[in-house]
């Protein structure tokens, strides 16, 4: 990104607080668009991530770089990496460990040629643009490819640096001539900042399970209503009666044969849904090598043969303690196998390891019957075209009203026993 007058003005604006006092000196930051994450030292990136309010394993350097290096999220697949980075310049004592500029702020950013793999659906917006002869693609997107997980998107060493990052991102969007900028699943801390900067907020819902210190799976079941408890036991019994057993493979225990098995299962399930998988074996091998401490592979077996797998990502760090349901696949069909492999086995793991939260991914009211409760999510949107921006804002107002009513309806269907 060139240091254009508009970009410089936004940086200057962001460095002044509402009461007129001056924050960070904008001249102390160098702005750069980074197309290859390998150009940023993993230690610098991960240290900045660790300092955020809601870090996730999906923003680790290793995970993001694996997406790009494996060919899963690249120009060829419609995900063109354009990471927005602020480097702090100044005295060497304030610089990075290698003597170069210090990574002060960063934003995962992509030039998107479509809306696949995002889970915040804007196909209707794109269709409206097309019907009026206006280009919607490419667009700017800040998100983790193929990963509907809330977490930090505006990585910054300070509040001032974070504000600068937002201003520069909006300047980039304005000057690029592209239709829009979208920030998906930002943290609770970031959403108000994005809204204050003029972005429109969109509300959504996911379903998360919370560990109340359960000593066993049965102890968890005991908290559910009788009907829900009975149904889960029946589902688990059907899988057991089919002669299916399970193994948990952690980190380094997931060898290359296990990754090949998982990839077969994963691709088979996409094939059965007449769809193309986003990820490939090279990606799974890369994260297996680089971040094994974050990975659990559940393997279902029948008559000595593996028939299904589920890969979950987790972070058991103190104060974080979250497991994320991600990918699943099966080579054979058995009733309730999906629920056991992708939900009940990971729940058993959470209870055994004391993990506090299980995020079940996008959509899925069926998760409520299994003890997952609705949680509000947010996304932020800026559209360059004034008329379309006005129309989308009105749409989002109506959608928020509907979402509020929907959340109330979901609360009335709470699966836990009434005390």
TrEMBL record:
- Skewed-composition ranges (Polar residues): 14-24
Pfam families documented for this protein: FemAB_like (PF04339)
Q: What is this protein called?
A: Uncharacterized protein
The organism's place on the tree of life at top rank? Bacteria
* TM segment ranges: none
Disordered: annotated span: 1-26
């Amino acid at each position: 990104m060139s240091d254009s007058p508009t970009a410089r003005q936004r940086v200057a604006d962001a460095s002044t607080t509402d009461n007129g006092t001056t924050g960070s000196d904008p001249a102390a930051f160098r702005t750069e668009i980074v197309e290859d994450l390998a150009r940023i030292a993993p230690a610098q990136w991960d240290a900045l991530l660790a300092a955020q309010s809601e870090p996730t394993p999906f923003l680790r350097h290793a995970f993001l770089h694996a997406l790009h290096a494996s060919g899963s999220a690249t120009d060829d697949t419609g995900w063109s990496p354009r990471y927005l980075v602020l480097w702090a310049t100044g005295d060497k004592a304030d610089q990075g460990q290698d003597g170069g500029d210090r990574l002060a702020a960063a934003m995962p950013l992509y030039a998107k040629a479509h809306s696949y793999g995002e889970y915040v659906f804007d196909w209707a917006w794109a269709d409206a643009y097309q019907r009026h002869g206006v280009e919607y693609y490419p667009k700017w997107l800040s998100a983790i490819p193929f990963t509907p997980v809330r977490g930090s998107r505006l990585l910054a060493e300070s509040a001032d640096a974070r504000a600068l990052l937002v201003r520069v991102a909006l300047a980039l969007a304005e000057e690029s001539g592209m239709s829009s900028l979208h920030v998906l699943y930002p943290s609770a801390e970031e959403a108000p900042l994005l809204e204050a900067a003029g972005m429109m907020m969109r509300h959504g819902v996911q379903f998360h399970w919370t560990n109340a210190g359960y000593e066993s799976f049965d102890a968890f079941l005991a908290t559910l209503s009788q009907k829900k408890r009975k149904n889960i036991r029946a589902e688990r019994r059907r899988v057991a009666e089919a002669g299916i057993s399970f193994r948990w493979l952690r980190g380094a225990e997931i060898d290359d044969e296990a990754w090949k098995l998982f990839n077969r299962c994963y691709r088979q399930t996409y094939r059965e849904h007449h769809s193309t998988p986003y990820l490939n074996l090279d990606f799974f091998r890369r994260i297996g090598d680089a971040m094994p401490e974050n990975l659990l592979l559940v393997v279902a077996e029948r008559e000595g043969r593996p028939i299904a797998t589920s890969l979950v990502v987790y972070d058991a760090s103190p104060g974080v303690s979250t497991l994320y349901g991600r990918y699943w696949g099966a080579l054979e069909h058995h009733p309730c196998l999906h629920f056991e492999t992708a939900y009940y086995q990971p729940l058993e793991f959470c209870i055994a390891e004391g993990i506090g939260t299980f995020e079940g991914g996008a959509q899925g009211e069926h998760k409520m019957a299994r003890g997952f409760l609705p949680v509000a999510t947010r996304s932020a949107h800026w559209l360059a075209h004034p008329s379309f921006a006005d129309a989308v804002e009105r749409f989002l107002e109506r959608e928020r009203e509907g979402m509020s009513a929907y959340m109330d309806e979901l609360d009335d269907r709470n699966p836990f026993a009434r005390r």
